[in-house]
Amino acid sequence: MTIRIGFLGAGFISAMHTWQLSKATVDHKIVAVSDPDAARATTMAEAHDAVACPEDELLDMVDAVFITSWTVAHEDLVNKAAAKGVAIFCEKPLAFDAAAATRMVETVEKAAVINQVGLVLRTSPAFAVVRQLIADPRAGRTLAVVFRDDQFIPNQGHYGSQWRMHKSLAGRGTLLEHSIHDVDYLQWMLGPVIAVSATTREHHGYDRIDDLTAARLEFESGAIVQLTSIWHDIVERGSLRHVEVFSDNLYVKLEGDRTGPVRWQFTGEQEQSVDRKATVHFLNDIDALPASLEQNFLEAVRDATPASPTFREAIAAHQIVDALYESADNNGNTVTDAYRTR
Fold it and tell me: Which one of 2.60.40.10, 3.30.360.10, 3.40.30.10, 1.10.10.60 gives the CATH number of domain 121-289+318-328?
């Protein structure tokens, strides 16, 4: 069976998915592309020997769809794809807020279609190493995490679009559009959040598009996280993350992003490190190397099994982000009911 794939969106992030798909081991073919920019849809379609067509036609041609449009369109496109019984991969964030994301969960579950969200840190090798290390019983309790996420503001460079600067299309800024990855990873790694607070800034002057968020997350486990998310103008600097984790008997530092390096030290031991290929070898040695999101999705479609992370699994991150924005909009006051759908 060759899985027929369509793309609803032909921007920068679509190219990232097609690159990962090119490495997947499940038989598939990109057969159709749709985008509000017809020229862009045509360019992408021609690169994959596919057709550019309206979204309704595309949904009649495919077994699975990647929704990589601007955020405001996600819910409508999910509704249409689910009505056709098509497997759905939707980019993060699912929606502007948890309430809309919850409606999307209800839609895909009622239609019983395979669904997955593009929360990529769950499958990033360096972040998988960090998660494995803090789960080691020798580490003890996770006490504190310092997490910095920075990239140039995505209205320039390789992004080639301006839509993320418009609240009507993106909803909000760096916290929702970019660092929902970080929030999802943190709650996936550390467990439930019990209180949050945040301050945001809009230094670039785009209404409701935060380009700086300083957040504090308290976890049920007792861990405390300081998260800083920044959109700057250093186009020459890649999208980077810096993470430090302090446990009772373990210190971990991740630099760069997907491939590290990662350095760590347990009580009574010398510091160790892995970088790039060594990161993959480390995970392979303990049978913990995650497949890419795209590989996971294709396997789920082929085998008619659940993909991961599902839409439902993404709700917690949306609820926490909502709570952080609620705090920021109220002078940084602490919000203690982070999992209430707002």
Answer: 3.30.360.10
